[in-house]
Amino acid sequence: MDSTVLALLALGLGIAIGAGVSVLIVAALRARSYAAHQASSELPDGLRDVLAAMDDAACAVDSSALVLAASSASSRFGIVADATLENAELRQLVRSVREGGSERATLRLARGGRNLDPRLVSARASWIAPRLALLIIRDVTEQERLEQMRTDFVANTSHELKTPVGAVSLLAEAIESAADDPDQVRAFATRIQAEAARLGRLTGRIMSLSRLQSADGLGEFGSVAIDEVIANSVESHAVQASAAGVELARGGDRGAWVQGDAQILVEAVGNLIANAIVYSPRGSRVGVGVRVEGGVVEISVSDQGIGIEEADRDRIFERFYRADEARSRRTGGTGLGLSIVKHATQRHGGEVRLWSRPGRGSTFTMRLPQIEAPEGDIEPAARQKKPKDKNSKSKKKRATRKPAGPAAAQAMTAEKIRTESGDSA
Hints:
This protein is of the alpha+beta class. It has three domains: 47-139, 2-Layer Sandwich (Beta-Lactamase); 141-217, Orthogonal Bundle (Helix Hairpins), CATH 1.10.287; 221-416, Heat Shock Protein 90 (2-Layer Sandwich). Helices cover 44% and strands 20% of the residues. It has twelve helices and twelve strands. The strands form two sheets. Strands 6, 7, 8, 9, 10, 11 and 12 form a seven-stranded mixed sheet that branches. A five-stranded antiparallel sheet has the order 2-1-5-4-3, sandwiched between helices. Strand 1 (57-62) and strand 2 (67-70) form a beta hairpin. Helix 8 (262-278) runs antiparallel to helix 11.
């Protein structure tokens, strides 16, 4: 074999070996790149900008549930970058899409870490990289409330309004037929005034409840001193308590602050006090107390009344529901007071709890997230010292005297009131 052939054979062999090595190198580089891609948690280009522009809560989560980037709205649910996704249901949703695709779930999440009223959210997880998922959380609580309000409003209001409207119509006919009898006319006119007043109270309560349930029904929240809320609520029901022969006692912690609307909170606490007075026997006591513990302000209203049967506790916060129908009708109750308390507390990020024993009394507790006292806090008017008069000493003694007996223990101050969790439906 001559040298030319050998040279050609060597050249061909070299080319084949070189091609094989090149193929091996390319395959190795591709395998390395694929492995690096599979193990990488690097965010795709532009994802941070997209998250920053989103109004909904959204975040990028790796396979170990570490949040790599999040939108500003995510902080409302305690989701922040470089921290682990804490909610177990959200972590399970992310794990369910590891093989690809997307999943959606409806959950209830606490907002802000200290919010006691869980928010209804629609969460969607999509796997956008081998080790990266995109989680989008949309708060649909207001839509749920509005839908529930639409469903219940017509049925409830038509049922409740037809009674006073029908009574006014019948009384008007009675006045017409008794036009020649002044005494009968005056009696029927008095009844019409009573029914009109009842109708006015009912429509006012319906408007208050609708405002609480609407998405834009509340104004800007500010710092509210609980001392002032309690003082105003107790003062506005002093005449009612005196007429019913019921003593109002106030106690507990002082200096607590919450974020909210003072007028709404005064109305909510006032509703609890009014109910406690109505269902308390003459000569008993209604206690209003405040306790601050673990970043939560508890406002408790206790009575020594008839109590609430266990069968009624699940429905006590429903609109127009009355545990004692006869007493509520007799006192002009609308059945909306506790529903207003529930919705007002929820709109302030809190919850309502109920403790009750038939024959011993009831304790309703509003639990609200506490905030720090604002800088330059001026002592609320409810805590400022007032000029003493002759009767101030005797009034103070009556307000601070402790009740005696096992039944009276239900009306002690909030720090001595033991409440149990009740349904806030």
